[in-house]
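[INFO] parsing input record for Penicillin amidase
[DEBUG] input buffer:
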Amino acid sequence: MRPRRLAAAVTALGLLAASLTTPGSAAAAHGNDYSALIQRASYGVPHITARDFAGLGYGVGYVQAEDNICTIAETVVTVRAQRARWFGTTGDAAANVTSDLFQQKVIDDRVAERLLTGPRDGLHSPSNEVRDQLRGFAAGYNAYLRRTGAANLTDPTCAGKPWVQPITELDLWRAFWTSMARAGSAGLADGIVAAAPPSGSAPVRPGEITGQLPAPKASALAAADDGAPAGVGSNAYGLGRDATASGTGMVLANPHFPWDGPDRFYRMHLKIPGRYDVEGVALVGDPFIEIGHNGRVAWSHTVSTARRFAWHRLTLAPGDPTSYLYDGKPRKMTARTVTVQTPGGPVSRTLHDTHFGPVVVIPGAFDWTADTAYAISDPNAANNRALDGWLAMGRAKSVGELRAVLDRRQFLPWVNVIAADRDGKALYADHSVVPRVTDDLAAACIPAAWRDLYARSGQAVLDGSRSACELGRDPDAAVPGILGPAHLPTLVRGDYVTNSNDSYWLANPQQPLEGFPRIIGDERTERSLRTRLGVHQVKQRLAGTDGLPGKGFTAGKLWDVTLGNRAYGGELVRDDLVRSCTAHPVATASDGTRVDLAAACAALRGWDLRVDLDSRGSHVFTEFARERGLRFADRFDPANPLTTPSRLAVDDPQVRTALADAVRALDGIPLDARLGDIQTEPRGAERIPIHGGWPEAGIFNMTINLLEPGIGYRKVRHGTSFLMAVELDRNGPSGRQILTYSQSANPNSPWYADQTRLYSGKGWDTIKFTEKQLKADPNLVTYRVGERRR
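[DEBUG] output buffer:
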């Protein structure tokens, strides 16, 4: 439905609105119906009210289909193991076969069905409320598709495509599982598919892929410095009474997620009168608010550094590479041949499992030989608690209640929580699902050859031949195999907590969190420039030394600080860099080319040390930083973690080489160009200027894009996506928010570019949580969706 077609219907819906907001009213007579009231506010943001969770899910599924049906449909194609069938297998689509083999294994193993087995208490299996929400979502999505028809969709991405089909609840549960396992099993999918015993040890079936396969995504995940999934990140502040002008709590939510594809956020406000009332965002295709606020508590998530899986080194039985020794006795691996359909016919692969979990191969690092193989245990592969967890978060009335939810449910798959409440308490917690690798277990069970890896990256390789090296159970843990709350870092403060994707250590520098198992993150190690700037911004605002009037935070000042677009790396070293390139105006690039640095020096000299649209020369520093030119002369000092290192290593020849490489990379682009002229986001034929920049340059407002030679940065890959500065006032939540890439991915939607243009000018939409706030919106359009349940 389009607002212009609905305006005449608004006045006819007053009675419906009243029935949905009055418990026990005549609306209860329609208990067998799906029914939801949709109030579309400015920028297309839906405020959805229903009598029950089935109706609420129906409303969410319907409006998300209106705005992003192609995105949801493609996700369903993925979890149905049909990417190769519909999208091909050549060129960039070559990975579709691997994806399908992995997802088909999930289907064959009935993974999603097992998530739903057990008491419906939200801990052992999902509650009836959550099941109703997903059932309603599928029904709402299908109703929109049935009403419109695939041939009449306005999004050219999927209009008329045969892969746009009705969805089921099971599709949604499979998508949910894949999201939970993103930093574990799903992130290692190509390594699971690559796992094969030494050649010649098993019979080959017709059409079966055999032999060594590449595993680039698994290799990247294992090689990463920490356990964060690739392509996502975040900043967040939880501000307590001592940090805000009002003395109440305030939260900055600033996730850095992809601007395209299934990881886009979707803004919405969901309400069941007297039972649930939350505003914020969820990933497209998800039914509950994952980042947001209710009337008393606000929260955000940042990506945690903890590892989500543990390796188990298998000692193989002599002469049988598909059996492994366990307490001296052989155990046979489970082998399953998985078959998927491709344009060229069926393709099969035999995959292997152990009692720990799947066997994984990462060529050159974790190989399957005649003597040794490696399996993983992934506690998130059994995490069926998350949707009930987010539902419970949305009902918390204080930081204390929120912390109790985290302690009891332990559901967060790979993120931290940063929160604040109306009473002015701020919370940091990494209560995510972490394999139970305690210090004692690590000392006893990580073989000597793998201890450096654990110390360096938190990646635990345990001796899989001994039952004593199983993960075990903490007495306070929600389920076996994970660290309990006593082993997880938590901090409650009256001033502030913060995180920018480094570990928990300096959530508040005045009270460092230390003594936790290495698998969660590192301590007393160098922090990123983005983390350091994030803390400096808070401290300077509290001291009133950041150039803004007054001291302490209001929602407006929190917005201004976040979008101040400071480049902390430039603040530290720009002047030294300019002095160096002035004294040595010619340098040698990595390829041996001699490069004149004079124009780059001039551009850096005139740069305002920000990444605003009008900033000139910022791209020179960005490329210098990306070429690893930020080399420091001083060492990190754990006693001064926010100010070290800080001095440019001007005598290191690599510094000038990096600047020369930056100049070469920017060939054809004026070195003193305005950032807004060369960093843009396409919306149809329009190119919208975008501010922000790369974290390597020490930029808080992160914008990740690739340099196109001679042109600039023409497409945002990921970065600031949802931005919320919410204050929990006694009269109700208030503040600012925006979805940077806009509500819809459909180029023919009225909500395809509006928030992107707004973000370009550092504008915002207001919090609209109360009825008064919502009714004040001049663009409000109301309609009802529903049907009789089948």
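[INFO] Residues 53-79 form the longest helix (27 residues).
[INFO] shutting down worker
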